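hey can u check if this looks right to u? its 347 residues, i copy pasted from the old doc so theres a chance i mangled smth
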Amino acid sequence: MVNPANAHMVRLPISKADLGEWTRLVNAIADFDQTGEKYTPTLLEEELEAPGVDQDLDTLAIFDGDRMVAYGQLHVTDGLRDGYAKAIFGGGVDPAYRRRGLGAEVLAWLFKRGSAKAAEKHPGHPTLASMWIHHPGSVDEILALNNGFVRARYFADMSLNFDVWEPPAGFEIGAPPRPDALAVEFLPKQHGEATRHAHNEAFADHWGSTSRTKENWESVVLGSVAFRPQLSRIAINPELSTELSTELSTENPDAVLPDDAVDAYVLATEYQDKELYISTVGTRRRARGKGLATELLVESLKQAQREGFVKAELGVDSASPTGANAIYERIGFRVVRTSVVMERLLT
């Protein structure tokens, strides 16, 4: 239901013509709420054009004159999670327009559209709605709790500053590589599909994760303008031959890794200038406990430090089954904020 005080406002899907105003709104929210999640128009355009997104039906902008004052966006995952369709809610309200009912209006729209799209995409399956709250106890969390959501999982945002960071013992600059793992720079054409297979297996036992399709992986992950392959790393299964490692070089761009070749991987992005964001770290179950993720992450960090990056950040499940939190702390990361994922059954 629309608050009568907001009746004069215009409600439209988000279009490419709105990218400038949408960017302003998203970054104003990030500054006010201190989330650290700032975007460029190009990054937001990627979200509009992501596979499976119908920008006319899956986005909402509320305008007061020429000013976008609230927005909502919906994504329904391709895969199921424990038999449930997963509807991911996103959105926000201009800090100057809060406590006017706009957040409740956006959430009501998300409920309606999320239920409809999930039923279209995954007929016969119940739908679980999910939304990310950057600050437990905030007005966003109160809105979610008042609308039937419950706290499902906590996540930690971690950061390190390169001006004071030194690699942990055993990984210093110039230290010899491990003999039992072939760690190489990520090459999208050669390594992309094998890394997707590794990711889907590595995250199969992680809370809230759904499998990635080839289209989604190539578009949203590898195709993102923020992706930095030169700072990403993979570990190839040591049972592969030396000849294969030689063949898989930049001199032979047509050589492709077998689907089961990648044991571990680190994928790096740069959303803000000279700020490294580690988007994903994963290890296949067969290779866990060998320190591969640590080695790859440290190599990525050392390369970023050489290239003049000022800091690195990542997010981690506070109850990760791989004990990732402790690994990141040993490398030098420290928790800077805590977020919570809220969930609610829609159907």
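Residues 102-121 form the longest helix (20 residues).
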